[in-house]
Specification:
Elements: H1 9-21, H2 34-39, E1 43-47, E2 53-57, H3 63-80, E3 86-88, E4 96-100, H4 104-108, H5 115-118, E5 123-128, E6 131-136, H6 141-152, E7 156-157, E8 163-164, E9 170-173, E10 177-180, E11 186-190, H7 197-202, E12 222-223, H8 229-232, H9 235-238, E13 248-249, E14 252-253, H10 265-281, E15 287-289, H11 302-310, H12 316-333, E16 338-344, E17 360-365, H13 382-394, E18 398-403, H14 417-429, E19 434-438, H15 450-462, H16 468-479, H17 484-498, H18 522-538, H19 542-563, E20 566-569, E21 572-575, H20 578-594, E22 599-601, E23 604-605, H21 606-616, E24 620-621, E25 623-626, E26 630-635, E27 641-647, E28 652-653, E29 671-676, E30 688-691, E31 699-705, E32 710-718, E33 724-733, E34 739-749, E35 758-762, E36 768-772, E37 781-787, E38 795-802, E39 805-810, E40 818-824, E41 830-836, E42 840-842, E43 847-858
Parallel strand pairs: 2-3, 2-4, 4-6, 11-19, 12-15, 15-16, 16-17, 17-18, 18-19
Antiparallel strand pairs: 1-9, 5-6, 5-10, 7-8, 13-14, 20-21, 21-24, 22-23, 25-26, 26-27, 27-28, 29-34, 30-31, 31-32, 32-33, 33-43, 34-41, 34-42, 35-36, 35-38, 37-40, 38-39, 39-43, 40-41
Helix pairs in contact: 3-6, 10-12, 14-15, 15-16, 16-17, 17-18, 18-19, 19-20
Length: 862
């Protein structure tokens, strides 16, 4: 649909002044002096459906220049009724001309357009005598010049089905003399709604996933896009004969869920061969990704660790030396091709010594930051700014992989427009030259605010100095018509949740924030529901009402996720109103599918959500243990988990409760025992737990059975003389073959005051150790392994789990080989303390044992 709806006189005046003044609106603008303006006269391109102008292009015009001429002809006709003929410079060119692209006529006029300086995407807009000149780089520059000119005339392409092409009885252009180049060489809003070829070209984005082709001047094309180590050396092809090609992790070469050995000369040689083959097979690609897999598991061999030490301990050191070696060889024969790699997760901090070669692009990924606030104003983002500044000091070819959605909950409100308005200009100031804005690109799309977000991001990527607030208003005026006022109020209500006082609530927000996060408060949900209802009743046509209903899915989704919350009632662990919850869930799925939505979460289709809901959302029988000081609940069917430990004196439950929006909820969190094959692999052996008949109020026994023949016997007991829970588990190999086994018991706790919470212990070497949950100046999440002399000497304490309370975890030192600690304060506060047994190869009949006590005590000094 094309719409000409506006928001009244103010908007029309804004568009008129943007056209008639000739004032530049983007990077690299030059405006003539007043005397030069006076020497020019306005050009009347069309009046009362007629025009004296022709559109002239070169006979050798590029495909995108021909498209530019066609688009200019089409939209001028739609605006004025006048159809300007398109001619080439091989024809007699008399009369008034719109010169599109470089041509013989442009050269005859002696305009001296700096095509070399404009590059592939820059352009000039100029009036000269009776002529209008729109000319720039042949690849995309001239095309972008035409779209910018149309933009000045008031044309907008907000989404694939909503645009504004204003009607004009006369099209008068005041003198123009400006040039523009994009702020960033690579511009990709990664949303399904931004992939359409026409939308992408008209909004001047050039990303790898946009459906751009030769007619639009191509795009910045990657091959492969990212996480390519196992694409370069597939483990199924090489690992059996050459395990030395792959990362040494925890003493073992691994061809799964890990990385490559980047100091192995054969790995370098084979990578160069592979990349050169890719270049031959994909000549359309301009960037080839040599980048780490999307996991941990960096190589710990002697050579790789030596390089890390030389590079100041940075994991990016071996990566960049490796990538430089590949890029140097590729550059010999293909100087126009770029090699890309990531500064991501464990490799985000830059190296000390090595520097990227000129044909290397680093993509820096701020995956751990708070996205609710400008990075330079949020305490949680200081660490990333340090990394950005450090990378900017060693390369002027930096790309950014920026995150613009909640990947665990695509529909959840994600108020990050203030952050985007602040940080895209900040990136430009730090010399960033390309930006990938990763959002919901699932089939069907439908991510929260996807159309508005895509449009605003496209304009920011071209010119990060735009007024985002004004751009949002302009979009909403057309996209929502009469419903724009309540929809804008809903937008503002979202952003007040994260804005710092006095403007807002000051809550933080991350890319995996749960629906139970503080910024999605009940008060916010109530206000949002009211505004969306007003918007739907105000909308003046069915198309607009449908857009409002699609926006309302965000609030419906959060309501449903919160309604999944489980609680213990009358011996059962279940949601409060299960029948209503099931009905609402089916209704949400139906509504989502009606809009073409296929995913609520990254990489997981609605059918999987439906299956998971049917499997897990049901009542679970609870076994309760009680003493004079504690009340403990266990759900045997949920991996035998301890789901609560309540200190009766203070009514404090110290156990962390999972957010009902989490994957596999409610089989999460609490305290549970697992058996793994080693310390590295992520997935434990499957086990089914059953409760044996309870013999008393303070002790229960569980049996866990694994399909591979392992059987676990577990006792959970309340100690009579102290407020503590004792757990004891023995695993036995009841099968006929040897099985590798590591026992781990881990428990998730809820730090009520994360700024004051810390894990404290004395190591086996006698050293006092302390890990803060909110380390100053660092990302508010992390993990540590404690081994050998660094691990706790039989006891460690989590302080701050309640008002003046601490949890003390004690264990037999001869049973525990490692301790693990994981913490986060990203809206969902949690500390996980894990105990790990020795790794054993259990012969048939052999056993392995692990014990642990968890006690609650007053915080010392309170």
């Amino acid at each position: 649909m094309r719409s000409s709806r506006g928001n009244g006189t103010n908007r029309r005046q804004f568009l008129k002044s943007a056209v008639l003044s000739g004032v530049g609106m983007a990077v690299g603008v030059s405006v003539p002096s007043a005397s030069a303006d006076a020497a020019q006269k306005p050009l009347v391109l069309a009046k009362q459906g007629k025009s004296s102008y022709s559109i002239l292009i070169s006979e050798a015009a590029s495909p995108s220049e021909r498209r530019a001429a066609d688009e200019l002809q089409t939209f001028i006709e739609e605006m004025t009724g006048a159809r300007l003929p398109i001619i080439t410079d091989e024809e007699e060119a008399n009369g008034d001309l719109v010169l599109v692209g470089d041509s013989k006529q442009v050269r005859k006029l002696g305009l001296q357009i700096p095509f070399d300086d404009l590059g592939a995407e820059g352009f000039v807009l100029r009036t000269q005598g009776d002529h209008l000149i729109i000319a720039g780089g042949k690849q995309r520059g001239t095309m972008y010049g035409v779209y910018t000119f149309l933009d000045k005339l008031g044309c907008r392409w907000f989404s694939t089905d909503v645009s504004v092409i204003p009607k004009r009885p006369a099209l008068v252009v005041e003198p123009l003399n400006e040039s523009q180049k994009p702020a960033f060489e690579y511009r990709e809003p990664f949303f399904t709604e931004a992939a359409d070829k026409d939308w992408a070209a008209r909004n001047r984005v050039n990303g790898s996933f946009q459906k751009l082709d030769e007619s639009t001047g191509g795009k910045v094309s990657y091959f492969p896009f990212v996480h390519s180590f196992y694409t370069i050396l597939p483990p199924q092809q090489y690992f059996q004969d050459h395990p030395e090609y792959y990362a040494l992790v925890d003493g073992k070469r691994r061809g799964d869920d890990a990385q490559l050995c980047l100091t192995n000369p054969d790995v370098v040689r084979l990578t160069i061969q592979t990349v050169l083959k890719w270049i031959d097979q994909h000549p359309e690609a301009s960037i080839f990704s040599v980048s780490q897999n999307d996991t941990r598991g960096w190589c710990e061999c002697e050579n790789c660790r030596r390089i890390e030490q030389e590079e100041g301990g940075a994991h990016s050191g071996p990566i960049l030396r490796f990538v430089n070696a590949v890029a140097a060889e590729v550059g010999r024969t293909h100087p126009d091709k770029l090699i890309d790699t990531l500064a991501y997760w464990y490799s985000e901090p830059p190296p000390l010594e090595v520097r990227p070669l000129p044909n290397v692009r680093i993509r820096l990924c701020p995956i751990g930051v708070c996205e609710g606030h400008a990075y330079d104003r949020c305490v949680h983002d200081r660490y990333f700014l340090n990394d950005l500044q450090a990378w900017a000091r060693i390369t002027n070819q930096l790309y950014i992989w920026h995150y613009v959605t909640n990947f665990a909950h695509y529909l959840a409100p994600f108020p990050d427009f203030d952050e985007l308005a602040a940080d895209l200009p900040m990136y430009k100031e730090h010399g960033v030259v390309g930006i990938f804005l990763e959002g919901d690109a699932a089939p069907g799309g439908g991510g929260e605010n996807a159309e508005l977000r895509s449009y605003v991001m496209a304009r920011l990527l071209w010119n990060p100095k735009i007024d985002v607030d004004e751009t949002v208003n302009e979009f909403m005026a057309t996209y929502y018509g009469r419903a724009a006022r309540p929809m804008r109020a809903y937008f503002d209500l979202q952003h007040r949740q994260v804005r710092m006082p006095p403007e807002g609530q000051g809550h933080h927000m991350w890319i995996y924030t749960r629906p139970g996060a503080p910024y999605l408060s009940p008060e916010f949900i109530t206000g949002a529901t009211k505004l969306l209802a007003e918007a739907e009743s105000t909308a003046d046509d069915e198309a607009t009402r449908k857009r409002v209903r699609k926006a309302r899915l965000s609030i419906d989704y959060v309501k449903l996720m919160r309604a999944k919350a489980f609680a213990v009632r009358d011996g059962w662990y279940a949601p409060e109103n299960l029948d209503q919850l099931k009905e609402n869930f089916r209704g949400l799925l139906k509504d989502a599918r009606s809009f073409g939505i296929t995913e609520f979460h990254e990489g997981r289709r609605l059918e999987e959500d439906e299956s998971e809901f049917d499997k897990y959302i049901k009542p679970y029988r609870v076994a309760t243990l009680e003493s004079s000081s504690l009340r403990v609940s266990v759900a045997p069917e949920l991996s035998g988990r301890i789901i609560s430990i309540i200190d009766k004196a203070t009514s404090t439950d110290v156990v962390h409760h999972p957010d009902p929006g989490d994957h596999l909820f409610p089989d999460l969190s609490g305290g549970a025992l697992f058996v793994y094959p080693d310390y590295v692999l992520r997935e434990p052996y499957d086990a089914i737990w059953k409760l044996e008949p309870q013999t008393g109020p303070s002790e229960i026994h569980l049996i866990g059975t694994c399909p591979n023949g392992l059987q676990m016997k577990r006792t959970i007991q309340l100690l009579a003389d102290q407020p503590a829970v004792h757990t004891e588990t023995t695993v036995q190999n009841t099968g006929s073959s040897a099985i590798e086994a590591v026992l781990t018991f881990r428990c998730d706790f809820d730090p009520k005051h994360p700024a004051e919470s810390a894990v404290i212990f004395r190591s086996r070497a006698g050293k006092a150790m302390r890990q803060a949950v909110l380390p100053p100046g660092e990302e508010p999440s992390g993990s540590e392994w404690y081994t050998d002399s660094d691990q706790p000497d039989g006891e460690w304490t989590l302080a701050g789990v309640g008002t003046h309370l601490a949890v003390v975890n004690r264990f037999p030192k001869d049973q525990v080989t490692r301790c693990s600690l994981n913490w986060t304060a990203k809206a969902d506060y949690r500390v996980t303390m894990g105990l790990w047994s020795a790794k054993r190869t259990l012969a048939p009949g052999e056993t392995l044992k692990l014990e642990a006590d968890y006690g609650i005590s007053p915080l010392k000094g309170a």
